[in-house]
Amino acid sequence: MILYPAIDLKDGNAVRLLRGEMDKATVFNEDPAAQARAFVEAGCEWLHLVDLNGAFAGEPVNAAPVEAILKACDVPAQLGGGIRDMATIETWIDKGLARVILGTVAVENPDLVREAAKAFPGKVAVGIDARNGLVATKGWAEETDVQVTDLARRFEDAGVAAIIYTDINRDGAMQGPNVEATAELAKSVDIPVIASGGVSSIADLIALRDCGAALNGAISGRALYDGAIDLKEALTTLRG
Known about the structure:
The chain is an alpha/beta fold.
């Protein structure tokens, strides 16, 4: 199971939000590329990037720090937030991004997800963010009546690389991930699932690894910045 260190970008800084609320942002590093290099030097295999401003704007906003991270680091990175058309997808992949994450458009324009997954095999993931089992879109600001598993199953035959499932109520709250819901999703689809939201200890990572479903990985942000998880120790534990 891969551990994806998260770098959430707001106004050019690496931040963490509490339950997705933009007015509850804590700045952890004003140099996101330096933060990314620190994660890579600790041994991470991937980076998880989110353009928070872009998620609300519907288009890339923090392109400059993302590009700086891509230039500074030699590990693959995935990016979500404000990626809602083929031109943007193609631009990011041309700039060296290993994987784009499509969230809002997965609900509003599923044909785009299919088109992108076909055009860029292995480079398109679906981001499913949910409160109480229902999908939220547009930077988590809008709630839908779509069930998580129903949305995931729509892409079973689309060729997407992964589903990134975030429990919004757990995100940034340091209260542990929703292991049960994540495992249920992973068991209900053949697409690899990456867990996100609430991962706050190595015990949480072990619980996800041993949940009875074959998870591709887990994303952690605040716990790495706060020191609740030592990245080197976590990587050694998961590889062991």
